[in-house]
Amino acid sequence: AASISESSSSDYKKPWRPEEDFCSEGLGVEGEGKIVALRFHTATAKDKVERYIAAVLEVSCAFQVELDKYGVALPIDPKQYMKTSNSLDFDRLHAIIAPPEGLLSKPLLQRLHPEVPGVFEFWALATSEARHFNLYDELHFKTQGDSFFFNRFFHTKLGDFHGKEGGQVMTEMSKISDRLGETSLPQDEVEGCDSDEWSD
């Protein structure tokens, strides 16, 4: 596991059903950010105890997930942040993914938006790949519905692979290359002749 020394806990008076209680609304949020704090969080509910990795991110961009006519999530382009209608400013993001009342203590909430603008907390099971997170890793993430739970994530900088095993590195690198494939290159944006004008 990553060197996480901080931990926190909360009591939840109901049965623990995050998929139904926290993640069942909306299509989710997709965005990017840098990890600025990590800790273990234990949620003690009426029926079980669950352990999470809480990753606190300084978010650089966030978008509401939108679907195309076939029901497939439209790709996001971080360079288009705040230029598209599905871009989320930090207050709108907070309204969508803030943890429910009572789940985080006041001192923890004081480290997050709106007290610290642009800083948000996301949870992943402690047994997930999030256990390999390190401070200052830069991530691309998607949430589980409109919630603070990660659905999926991958690293966006090659330097973030330090300490990972070969298979993990290859998986992460393929995600980066897929992502880079979605973004246009500078020469693609140059205005000029269409390629069909060159045909004989």
Walk me through the structure:
By secondary structure, the chain is an alpha+beta fold. It is 16% helix and 28% strand. The protein has helices at 18-21, 90-97, 106-109, 166-182, and strands spanning 7-11, 29-44, 49-64, 119-125, 138-143, 150-155. Strands 1, 2, 3, 4, 5 and 6 form a 6-stranded mixed β-sheet that branches. Strand 5 and strand 6 form a beta hairpin.
- Unreliable residue stretches: 160-164, 180-200
Largest sheet: 6 strands, mixed
Q: How many DSSP H or I helices? A: 4
Percent helix, as a range, is 10-25%
- The helix/strand class is alpha+beta
Beta strand %? 25-35%
Q: What is the rounded distance between the termini?
A: 60 Å
- Give, in order, the helices and strands: EHEEHHEEEH
| Tertiary shape | globular
Averaging pLDDT over every residue, what do you get?
85
* Secondary structure: number of strands: 6
Radius of gyration, whole Å: 19 Å
Oligomer: single chain
Write the layout of secondary structure elements.
Layout (H helix, E strand, L loop, with lengths): L6 E5 L6 H4 L7 E16 L4 E16 L25 H8 L8 H4 L9 E7 L12 E6 L6 E6 L10 H17 L18
Parallel strand pairs: 1-2
Antiparallel strand pairs: 2-3, 2-5, 3-4, 5-6
Brief synopsis:
With 200 residues, the protein is an alpha+beta fold.
Task: Give structural attributes.
disordered C terminus, alpha+beta, six-stranded mixed beta sheet, 200 residues, 6 strands, globular, 4 helices
